[in-house]
Amino acid sequence: MSTDIPFGFMPIDSRRSTAKPRRTGLSMVIDDGLPLAYARSVLEIAAPYIDLIKIKTGTARLYPRAELVAKLRMYEEFGVQPFLGGQFHEYVFAKLGEAALPKFYAESLALGFKTIEISDNTVPLTPEQRRSQIEGAVAAGLNVFGEVGSKETMSNPALLVEQAELCLEAGSQLVLVEAAELVENGRVRRDSLEVIKRLLPADRVMIELPGPWIAGVKSCDIEEMKKILFAEFGPDVNLANIAVTTIYDTEAQRVGLGTGGPLHD
C-alpha cells in the first residue's frame, strides 16, 4: 500500500486502465474558454484522469493567438491531447466552401493542433463529403476524430454503425457518437447503446455525454447516463463531453467510488 495515496488500503475497480496513454477508458473534457490559470490548476490535480480536451465550437477564433498557442502547449506538457471541435470545421465549410479547408488544416497545424474533429451537427454531410473531408485532413498531416449521429439514426441506430465504419475506413483514429442521438426527452436510448456495444470496437468509439445545450436534458439526466454507461460498458468506456468541474466525480464513478455504487463485472 502506498502511503502517498489517501485511503490507499481501499481497492478500486481492477478493470480500470490507470496508466496513460490509454486505449480505452478515455476521458474527454470540454474547454469552452477556460482561463489559462484555471486550466493549469485543473491539470495540476486532475491530469491523470484527463486524456483529451476539446476546444469547443468556434471558440479558437476568439483567442489572442499567443494565448491559444500557450494553452495548447500547456495541455501537451501535462499529457493531455487538445483537439479542435468539429463545429468549427463545419462553419468553415458552410461559409467558405471546400476550397478553404486546406487553409483551415494548415492554420490548425501552425497553432499546435495535432488533431481535429470532423462532424455534421449543423451542416449535414453526404457520405462522400464525410469521407473526402476526413481523407483531406489526414493527408494534410492531422489526426481526425469523426463524429457520427443524425436524426435518421434515432429511428435506425444501425446507421450509426455505417457512419462509424465510414469514418474509420477514411482514416479517423476515433469515432465520437453524438450525444443528442442517444437521449430522448432526457432519457437514454438503450437500443442505440446496445447497437454500439454489439457492433463497434470499444477502443475506437467514444460516447458523448449530453448537456444542457440539448433540450430536455438536466444535470440529473447526465448523471443517470454515466451510471448506465458504466454499468453497461464497464469502467473503461470512452467518455466525452465531461464538464471540467466533474472530472474527479466521473473518475470516482469509473472506479466504483461514486454515487452509482460499486460496479459489477
Walk me through the structure.
By secondary structure, the chain is an alpha/beta fold. The protein has a single domain (27-254), classed as Aldolase class I (TIM Barrel). Helix content is 42%, strand content 15%. It is built from 10 helices and 10 strands. The protein has helices at residues 36-46, 65-77, 86-96, 101-111, 127-139, 151-155, 158-170, 190-199, 219-233, 247-254; strands at residues 27-31, 52-55, 81-84, 115-118, 143-148, 174-177, 183-184, 187-188, 205-208, 239-242. Strands 3-2-1-10-9-6-5-4 form an 8-stranded parallel beta sheet. Helix 5 links the parallel strand 4 and strand 5 (143-148). Helix 1 packs parallel to helix 2 and helix 5 packs parallel to helix 7 (158-170). The longest helix is centred in the last third of the chain and has 15 residues, at 219-233. It is globular and about 55 Å long. The chain starts with 26 loop residues before the first strand and ends in an 11-residue tail after the last helix. The relative contact order is 0.13.
